[in-house]
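Dear Dr. V.,

Thank you for agreeing to look over these. As mentioned in my earlier message, I'm a first-year student in the group and I'm still getting used to reading structure tokens, so any feedback on how I've presented them would be very welcome. I ran two proteins. I've put each sequence directly above its structure. The first is here:
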Amino acid sequence: MMKKILFIIAITATTVSAQEISYEKYMQQVMESNLALAAKRLDIDIADAQLKSSKVFNDPTLGVTYSNNEDWDKGLGQSIEIELGRTFTFGVRKNRIRMADSERRLSVAVFEEYMRNFRADATIAYLKHLKAKMLLDEAQEILDDLAGIADNDSLRFKRGEIAESGWLESRMAMGIARNAMLEAEAECNNTAIRMGYYMGNLDGSESLRGNGSLEIDKQAEPIEKYIGSALEHRADIVVALSRADVAEAIQRYNKALRRPELNAVAGATYNMANPDFTTLKAGIAIPLKFSNLNKGARIADEILTRQANIDVEEAQMVVRADVMQAYNNFRYAVKQTETFSDKMLGDMRTVVESKRKAYELGEIPFIDFLVVERDESEMRRQYIEALFGKAAAWVELQRATGFSLEFGTATETEQ
């Protein structure tokens, strides 16, 4: 009896130290503090910097030349030449800016796609914790029931009402239930640690406890609505379209590089002969781009553009398939939860209580009570799994349709 009291005190202390957290607060912490998310956001900052650097103009060149055509002592034919030159390109800077802007839009689209999956994954982690917490409560309730019976059987054995084997049987059942509870507690703590990872802080994360519910009131709408939303909002389609834009921008940029350039030069030469004189000069130079005769780079750009356009069509196919699968999974999960009802679970609890009284009165053996107890426990576990399956399937359907919506679980006090 003393061991049971100490055990209950330990469980109560663990419960008191638990840190309750709602889904809304959890997701707020995730969005603010997750390290992987913070690192991913820097990709946009890098793209912004690259866009800014793409706006630079070609740098001019400044040259200074000293020459001496005569004997140094005579000082004849000495001259100093100063030359300023610059290369002018046509369309290169403009297309470089367009390319950098396309790459920035791609970075934004990639981040949004990452965010879509990240939020869904973080939500699934919260749901898994809620499931583990409910399973822990279930295991604790079974342990309490069996511990009460074992204590009662101990007194009955001392009074000579039952044989020692009967007391040992209930005590073994309690031990098995205790191990199951400890396993459920470990799983609950591990899912809490996973939540702490998403929140960006593992300190004390093992004591986190979500206070939401797995029950959601959602039904499947026509699949065409989900497919239409997905084709409009899925970030991976935007990513594919952005990659096509980048490929076209690269093609235009490379085309601009193949255009003729103009090198302009202006300068002055001061000759220190007797008498001295100054020579001014100006000129242009046009490079002869014989390299343009090789069409390999041009063909490669065209192929990359065609490939990017094909990738857009492939992305649309993937989106349709994702939505159809997520839709079917959600409908199946809804049907699973519909097989259970509060009346069914309540009736099963009534049967367990009646069997317990019958056992305590000596009308049935312990094994008959234990079978019914385990059947009820299995039914409740299946119900919890079904609730989790429906909630998780709803999140996956939202992921497939392209929305990064939070799960929206209500806290227990709000239901």
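The second protein is here, in the same arrangement:
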Amino acid sequence: MALAAFVVRSGDETRQVQMVCVDDLVPAGDELRRIERLVDWGQVRVTALPFYRPGGAGRAGIDPAVLVKLALVLAWRGLPSMRAVLRVAATDMSIRRFLGFGLTEGLPDHSTFSHAQTKRFADSSVFEQLFTAVLRQCTDAGLVGGRRLVVDGTHIEADAALKSLRAELVDVSAAADAERVTDADAGADRPAVPLRAASLKLAESRSGPTPKRVASNATVVSRTDPDAKLRHKPGHRKHLVHRGQVAVDPKARVIVAVQAEHATGSEADALRDLVTRARFAGHRVAELAADSGYASQESYAALEALKTQALIPPQPGAKHPAAGRARERMRTPVGRDAAVDRQAHAEGAIAELKRHGASRARCRGTRLVQLQLLAAATAINLKRLIAAQNGAQRDQNGDPPAHAAAITWLTGLLARVLDELTRIAAADSSTGS
């Protein structure tokens, strides 16, 4: 009778008591380990300190660094929600170590993070300062060129349904009656005619088909997220969205600035704010590249006042002098190179943002969407830093696969040379020479 050549696992081994260290269960090259070393978590706590009341009754609050780390994990892994992050963290030793929790410690509840994001940190600069600190490290590492900025925008699905839309009506006559009229001669205000009660009556009965009602941002507003705006693109479904603007340095596709805004008006309205944010972070913004959606006489004038060269193709029918000069710039090698940078890096960065948690708004309100964009952009810039460190380490230690290939090639060449020498020696001995 043959014996089995394997050891049977009964399952009892999993109930044995062992002395283990979480630090030993996570590889030294783990990405979250490296992120932990790149961020000054003490500064994060200092920034969040004003939003915690000192002393008092009740249990101590969760470490604000833990809450920020949870937001980074969500963005880094591209998980859909904080509930999903906590489910993964329950069994993921890398996340547990990154958060500073032991094997048997209970993780924070998802509602704790929700309160911190929507209430405690909503009007703070915690995420803004974290983004700026990581961007400064990217600049110090030589990943930011500092001359050209490429800008593009995208729509972010709002956390609100179409059924939340309600008509937004204003009584124009009553508002006009409530105004006070200034008497220029007397120099005093006098009240207008007293408010009149609205006169309402039932509409006359009608026949025929019910007219089709068309909603627009001018007539309806969402009751769950008033900042979300209705968007309907031909061939696509109607939905409520926010707009996110992204400014990228094309040298290593580092995100320099992000801005969440209402999805109404022109995209070009955000250019001045984006340039201001980028310059605050140390970027010169000597050139700014964008698509024709940002082209207008006002945007060209605004960039000229900021001493920034506008590499923006004008609208096809634009005939003002600034449009003519813009066409000439876009025909130059610099203009063509800027168009390539915009397509490759601005649109590429937006695609990355969507993979890192910015495809859909998790909270309601433009300000909270801004925090979500900042967390995703910070995760992407941390990825750039880690990649740069990997490249520097390969340059320092050499490329092992390349070394192995070179050794294999040289060994084969040496073997062929020895075979040829052996053949020549055998031929010489056979001829007696």
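From my reading of the second output: Residues 180-188 have pLDDT under 50 and may be disordered. The CA atoms of residues 184 and 243 lie 45 Å apart. Does that match how you would interpret it?

Kind regards,
E.
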